[in-house]
């Protein structure tokens, strides 16, 4: 068998359905922007955490009021789940997502295992983010603005990678044609906003002048 024929057959297995090549570039953009944003906020949070460790009276830059209070959250055990500040996890993972996103945006064809890695990583990040959301709303009773920016980025990256992998049939099923999937992401964000408003109704009312 000719080598070129073999390569063509391998490419055909991993090629997305018609019309999804542009979608791959879109996923690359989401990964690049989300990864860069996540890395920046992780760095800001880590710097504030280190400053707080050095000076217990330090007020983090994202402590705005009793609800939007990074300082409150930074003093909890949930802020260091693995024994070190959570932002360290972000600094180790967000740049990887950004680098892979830049490759995809530039037209590079990632191997199947790289897409599986992205799926595993963004899924783990999404689950961790939602655990943090529950902890913030139910247990701690405060919100971290920079953390919420990271929430938005992680959810968008998970959603985009999952949709792309489903379209390309990389998750074990046949390639799927998914339309208007952006509505699902918007609904996801809306549920989180509703949960925040329901948890802090007086604070939310004050934001809109009620």
Automatic annotation (TrEMBL):
Chain segments annotated as transmembrane: 27-47, 88-106, 113-133, 139-163, 184-204
Protein name: Vitamin K epoxide reductase family protein
The Vitamin K epoxide reductase domain, residue ranges: 24-165
Residue spans of biased composition, Basic and acidic residues class: 1-10
Subcellular location: Membrane
Pfam family, one: VKOR
Signal peptide residue numbers: none
Gene3D superfamilies tied to this protein: VKOR domain (1.20.1440.130)
Record lineage: Bacteria, Bacillati, Actinomycetota, Actinomycetes, Pseudonocardiales
Keywords: Disulfide bond, Membrane, Oxidoreductase, Quinone, Redox-active center, Transmembrane, Transmembrane helix
Entry superkingdom: Bacteria
InterPro entries membership: VKOR (IPR012932), VKOR_Actinobacteria (IPR041714), VKOR_sf (IPR038354)
Major place of residence: membrane
Region (Disordered): 1-21
Membrane topology field: Multi-pass membrane protein
Record-stated family: Belongs to the VKOR family.
